[in-house]
Amino acid sequence: MEQFQIETAQNISIDQNTAHLGDRMLAFIIDTLIIIIYYVLMFWFLLALDVEPGDSWAIYLLMSLPAFLYYLLLETFMDGKTIGKSFMQIRVVKLDGTKPSFANYFVRWILRIIDVSLSSGGIAVFTILIRGQGQRVGDIAAGTTVISEKKRVFLKDTLLRELPSDYIPKFPQVTLFKDSEMQTIKEVYDGAKRNGNHNVILSLSTRLKKVMDISTELKPIEFVDIVIKDYNFYTQQL
Length: 238
Prior knowledge:
Blueprint: E1 3-7, E2 13-17, H1 21-48, H2 57-68, H3 70-77, H4 83-88, E3 90-94, H5 102-110, H6 112-117, H7 122-131, H8 137-142, E4 144-148, H9 179-195, H10 198-212, H11 220-236
Antiparallel strand pairs: 1-2, 3-4
Helix pairs in contact: 1-2, 3-5, 9-10, 9-11, 10-11
């Protein structure tokens, strides 16, 4: 799983984890099975109604549209996910971390012909492996990638922050907060940083400055991180 850094409009740098190739392949298999099941049920239903393909090709073509447009429709209306992607907890995003537009999804979808259909997925796998940032040809053209939303929990995630012995705090006002409040701040901050929700970090930074009655030129992501570290420093002195 690779990491790539995005720079938001608020000049906040956030690390994102690209989806593992194995997760993308499993999501593809799940989606393919769903499409196959749809086609089987469709043919069974129409044949049960005595609708022969040769006689009513227009009906079969119309009924096939949901399967044909499966990726385009689901990614557009499910925030960059298909059923397979949802199951594997991965999602399509733009390289700047924002939600893709319909045009981005359309470019990815139309280029599946090259990436997946004509090469049985070979070109997609090859491009993802050599390109970096989790991009197949369709992603490169659309300016998108696929990220993982799986939460990796480590022992350090249950703590506030580990500090170096020579750490110097900057904001003594952090002692205004209670332990429960700071833990909530940390959880919101870590979750927003992990998922690329820079607007949440910006709002959190603005709220902290107001409560602490301070002004700083630090970037929101840096400011909130220092506030958490400072609180840990002062509580360790008690």
